[in-house]
Amino acid sequence: MDTMASPAPAALEVAGIHKNFETFSALRDVNLCVAPGEMLCFLGPSGCGKTTLLRIIAGLEVQTGGRIVQNGRDISWLPPEQRDYGIVFQSYALFPNLTVADNVGYGLVNGKLRKPEIRARVQELLQLVGLPESGGKYPSQLSGGQQQRVALARALAARPGLLLLDEPLSALDALERVRLRDEIRQLQKQVGITAIMVTHDQEEALSMADRIVVMNHGQIEQVGTPMDIYERPATPFVADFVGKVNVLHGQALGGKRFRVGSMEIECPSCDGHFERGQGVSLYLRPEDRLAQHLPADTPHRLDALVTRVEFLGGLCIAEVTSEALDGQRLGLQFSLNQMHDLGLCEGRRIDIALRAQRIRVFASPSQARP
């Protein structure tokens, strides 16, 4: 997989970055390009190396080896103050004894701007983040979301070439996270700044990013658009980590045909080579099913029993089993209206058909080749 691919000339290049902590390898041969004006998200579980990589880009952590180039300038070993970025932390990191205006303008005081220019720039930024009347307040007088807006304004004050966001929304409640993620994305587009955000929240990454970098155990598993990552996961880890997914265990029959229980499934989108009899895992998203108006000759049709229903508001997950799949369970997604229309409830039988063209196939872990 070519993780160096990028849709435009690079605003930032990360080449061969690795980081060792004594006997522990936090990053291993990370290669990446970020396009100008792009919003890139580092996504992965805790301990995968995403924050370490962001800190290396910022110069807050020193890599063991590798290069970082920003707009053609090698910044690999430069201290943070000689790099061109603004950063927003999870904890806001505002000065409690300074007003909002002084916090935003803090990085401009030692520059060459005169006081009237600083005041004008601060007011411009407060207007930009929706806090035009808050310059005289102190951080303690603001909500968490408002404090994060101030931190964002401060990061943009010196017009940096790169904006770094270190899990900026994780300290906020659910509603405020949704509201602020939309505002950050709109602001990033409006300003046109290149941005890199670290998150473990897949919904944030899918909704905000131009491209997502999925990381695991210090390596990049896949780089792609949110749609690519969700619909065409390159590895079992990506398929399992991003979104909900069902995993069916079976055997390869040769070509693009596979057997799960007594059911033969042909997967047109399968691009791997599997030997006949090889153990495989078939990954299917909960929404990739048909359940209404199924003709008798519908391919991959199953008679299934609903064993459990998980109510999620406008959407529900119905867990079903089928003898044809040797009792392997599937979690299928339905809208609330579909649940009512189909009369789905625990103990109800239902005819379904799998969207085999959406199935991703990987070798079973015990048979996966290195």
What does this protein structure show overall?
The chain has about 375 residues and is α+β, with helices and mostly antiparallel strands. It is built from nine helices and 20 strands. The protein has helices spanning about 50-60, 100-105, 115-130, 145-155, 175-190, 200-210, 225-230, 235-240, 335-340, and strands at about 10-20, 25-35, 40-45, 65-70, 75, 85-90, 160-165, 195-200, 210-215, 220-225, 245-255, 255-260, 265, 280-285, 290, 300-310, 315-320, 330-335, 350-355, 360-365. It has a six-stranded mixed β-sheet with strand order 6-7-8-3-9-10, sandwiched between helices. A hairpin with a 2-residue loop joins strand 1 and strand 2 (about 25-35). It is elongated. The two termini are about 15 Å apart. The model has no long low-confidence stretch (mean pLDDT about 95).
Task: Give the uncertain stretches in residue-range form.
Answer: none
Which H/E pattern describes the elements? EEEHEEEHHHEHEHEEHHEEEEEEEEHEE
Secondary structure: number of strands? 20
Q: How big a fraction of the residues is strand?
A: 25-35%
The rough form would be described as elongated
From the alpha-carbon coordinates, what is the Rg to the nearest angstrom? 25 Å
Specify the helix fraction band. 10-25%
Please state the average pLDDT score: 93
Q: What can be said about the biggest beta sheet? A: 6 strands, mixed
Find the structural class using helix and strand composition: alpha+beta
Query: What is the straight-line distance between the termini?
Result: 14 Å
Tally of helical runs: 9
Kindly report the spatial arrangement of strands forming the biggest sheet: 6-7-8-3-9-10
